Amino acid sequence: MSISEKLNRVVARHDELRDLLSTQTDMDSQELQRISKEFAELIDVVRVVEEFRELENEVQGLVELIADPETDAEMKAMAEEEFSELKERFPEKEREIQLLLLPKDEADEKNAILEVRAGTGGDEAALFAAELFRMYQRYAEQHGWKFEPIDINATGIGGYKDASANITGKGVFAKLKFESGVHRVQRVPETESQGRVHTSAATVAVLPEAEEVDVHIDQKDLRVDTYRAQGAGGQHVNKTDSAIRITHLPTSIVVQCQDGKSQHKNRAQAMKMLRAKLYETEREEKDAARAADRKNQVGSGDRSERIRTYNYPQGRITDHRINLTLYRLPEIMAGDVNCVVEPLINEYQADLLAGLASEG
Questions:
Q1: What are residue 271's phi and psi, to 5 degrees?
Q2: Whole-number average pLDDT of the chain
Q3: Buried-exposed string 301-318: b where 16+ CB fall within 10 A, e elsewhere
Q4: Per-residue pLDDT tens for 283-314?
Q5: How many angstroms separate the CA atoms of 134 and 147, rounded?
Q6: Is there a contact between 252 and 281 (Cβ–Cβ < 8 Å)?
Q7: Which residues make Cβ contacts (< 8 Å) with residue 113, sequence separation at least 6?
Q8: Edge to edge, what strands does the sheet with 160-168 contain?
Q9: For residue 59, how many other CB atoms are within 10 A of its CB?
Q10: How many other CB atoms sit within 10 Å of the CB of residue 355?
Q11: CA 165 from chain center: how many Å?
Q12: Rounded alpha-carbon distances, angstroms, from residue 187 to 36, 195, 333
């Protein structure tokens, strides 16, 4: 199917939904919500399509004016100049349409659950995990997102064995979904007396936050344990059993939360994390066949894959999936992650666009 045919279908579907919303008064709320959402998603596409067609009409009008033998020289010169300017806008507008036509990831607009876990490297890996966690916290702050720690398992020397947070805001998952994987650090640890560079690693997982409607959880499938929250170095942060550990028996998934002061809040956060993990498991199963066929690793989300290296002696960061190397390590660790995130998104979109073109 050509791009033109796809555009005609989109416009026709937009008009059909508009008519449905204006004439059907006996629609149930769930169906109304579904149709309204689809209609809202098509509005931007139709707007850009209309702009593109207006541009085509303007260009056609100029072509006819230039070809008309009765057009005087001055008018023809002006028309030719305007024609050149309008032609330059075509590729940009075509790309805008193509991006809007790309298959939508239903999770892109969702909030996210971030998990960072120390890997190989002992204390140095735990220190790096803590730095990554703070890096994403600063990144969230720069975007005006809300960053709420769920559970932090500290080592007592400033490192994190593992840490998780709930990140809330517009398009959080779309921005962070390519951060899942193994992050490797190369540097000289403070405890290294001979100045040798050590390599350590931490694993990052970014999960889309799931609503109750996305995942059904049967309460009888849960084992809920309470325990006393621990601070850094094993110190008690309170004297009540406010920390919560939930085990989903069918899948053996375990989540826990101890950051909140109330057991009620910790349970709500733990359930939020459990829903996210179950939702991601479902997504992975659905996408397994498609992922197996993909050559581009940007969107694989494989958490065992080494995706990035942070080299401190050289001040360098390298994303291995797209062969991107930047000498901006201090700025990135301070939260300026966009310089890595945007190229990843662009590469992913280019991959999808190539698939779209081959279908046409």
A1: -65, -35
A2: 84
A3: beeeeebbbbbbeeeebb
A4: 777 666 545 444 444 554 455 678 999 999 99
A5: 10
A6: no
A7: 150, 164, 165, 166, 167, 206, 207, 208, 209, 272, 273, 276, 277
A8: 146-154, 160-168, 112-118, 198-208, 181-187, 306-311, 316-319, 324-326
A9: 16
A10: 14
A11: 15
A12: 52, 9, 14
The residue written with tokens 């028309």 in the block is 79
Q: What percentage of the chain carries pLDDT values higher than 90?
A: 35
Yes or no: say if 298 and 313 are a contact pair by the CB < 8 Å rule: no
- Report the length, in residues, of the chain: 360
Average pLDDT over residues 255-269: 84
Amino acid identity at 271: M
Tokens 């002696």 belong to 313
Which pairs with CB-CB distance under 8 Å and at least 24 residues apart come from 238-246? 242/266, 244/270, 245/270, 246/222, 246/270, 246/271, 246/274
In sequence order, which ranges of the chain are alpha helices (DSSP H)? Answer: 3-23, 29-67, 73-101, 122-142, 172-176, 263-293, 329-333, 338-359
Query: Cβ of 242: how many Cβ atoms within 10 Å?
Result: 22
Q: In this structure, which amino acid lies at residue 29?
A: S
**CA-CA-CA-CA torsion sign (232, 235, 237, 243):** positive
Assigned token pair, 326: 């930047």
Write out pLDDT tens, residues 50-71. Answer: 888 888 888 888 989 999 888 8
Q: What is the pLDDT of residue 11?
A: 84
Q: List phi, psi (to 5°) of 311.
A: -100, 105
**How many C-beta atoms surround the C-beta of residue 249 within 10 A?**
11
**Residue 303 CA, distance from chain mean position:** 15
Distance of CA 239 to the CA centre of its chain: 38
Contact 142, 335 (CB under 8 A): yes
Instruction: Give the pTM.
Output: 0.71
